[in-house]
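Example 537.
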Amino acid sequence: MEVKEGKKVFHGVAIGKIQFFHKKENLVVRRKVEDTDAEIARFEAAKAKAVLQLQGLYQKALKEVGEVNAQIFDVHSMMLEDLDYNDSIHNLINGQHVNAEYAVATTGDNFAKMFADMEDEYFKARSVDVKDISERVVTILSGNDTDIDISGEPVIIVAEDLAPSETVQMDKSKLLGFVTRLGSSNSHTAILARTMGIPALIGVEIQEAWNGKTAVIDGYEGKIVIEPTEEVLREYEARLKADKEKKELLLTLKGKENVTLSGQKINLYANIGNVSDLASVLQNDAGGIGLFRSEFLYLEKTDFPTEEEQFAVYRQVAETMAGKKVIIRTLDIGADKQVDYFNLGKEENPAMGYRAIRICLKQPDIFKTQLRALFRASNYGNIAIMYPMIISVEEVREIKRIVNEVKEELKAAGLAFGEVEQGIMIETPAAAVMSDVLAKEVDFFSIGTNDLTQYTLAIDRQNAKLDDFYNPHHEAILRLIETVVKNAHEAGIWVGICGELGADTELTGRFLKMGMDELSVSPGSVLSVRKAIRETE
Ligand code: PEP
Ligand code: MG
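Predicted structure in complex with phosphoenolpyruvate:
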């Protein structure tokens, strides 16, 4: 038995035989050509065929993993038409009288290196894409272009690296999981694996000698076990069986509408704190992300995350959710979420202290960096932004002023951004009481019942001694929620709950009766809440 560790891309267990995937080696030799026009024509014909293949892949991916994930193949088509890329190939053929294969491979290597050397993580990851398109053209030029073949039993694919096009081409019914040595969790291949829900690992020290051996991918722990002992195999088989049973139960609710017996519908989204939670969101069939606690990005760091770092994360979330709504909450630091580099200092009452939107409004540089990253990422999916700990309409107006400044700056810099819904969290009694006025200023409300309970009942949510007093079913909380829903609807905006109370199935019926538009709960609770909704009159 041999165990190798790697980085988890998607959880779950896969047991099966390994098929080592070799890229078809395109041995590119440099040849001298006399007729450069004919060589250019060969290149152009191969490129046209590559574009056709990419269009086919786009259509296949569209059906299997959704439009946003399919877009990579559109991007590849566009990259093939890139002027600099084409100029470089033409110049090599015309200037050095070399064959098309050599000109394409050399240009591909040069461009890939240029991308790989860039600081920006996003552009770094594009290095793989430029290699992928060049290899596609070289493969066509060499007459090697056949599909990846997984014949016989389903297998675990082990490869040096997998390009998005290779992942999509594989027959999903034959693919148990995959393990690669290269690849980044930011790559489109990783995004595709998550979307397809296949256990996958990257960064594993793979060996060709594993080919044909039985193995287990443990996507929970991030390891692959080659030739497991009988005992280990039995443990994993039990895990797989338990996962399967759970899945089957879930499957009966997957794809079903969140609709009551009398036909009332409600949106059911998931809360996340991290990119790694996305797999669970997809597996549990949430209709979107109702709360992305972006402060976790700051908590993991020893210094402020840069605009580029944040942009890469928000973009990845937006792309993975493939057009579904992703509500990202701006930084909610302070109180129990302390980070040294913010130098917030000691406070007597941190839960009622310098935190969340208060920090953002006092230190607009921090706020603007996040807003820029959010608006830029909005170009890649359906991002909405919400602001935490609001107590007044003045705060909302100040936020809007800063947002407008950010938008103007992005426009001036030629940076694209999409339409972004903007809402606020209703998690202070002040916001709940003023919700009729606030509703006229924003696109939606999301009720943070965790803090709303703490502030309304004057009970520190961190204080274990007060657990018996912390009662979110308190009529005061329910009345406030009802008021907020009524005020939102009177102003024509939608309203949801993203606090823990949203998952309390004892209250599902009551929320529906209030006319709640959305509930956002932890990914693991989505299907149990769906069940409760579907059983409500
Ligand atoms: C809430 O307060 O209900 C909420 C969703 O935010 P957090 O739990 O992150 O404070
Ligand atoms: Mg809160």
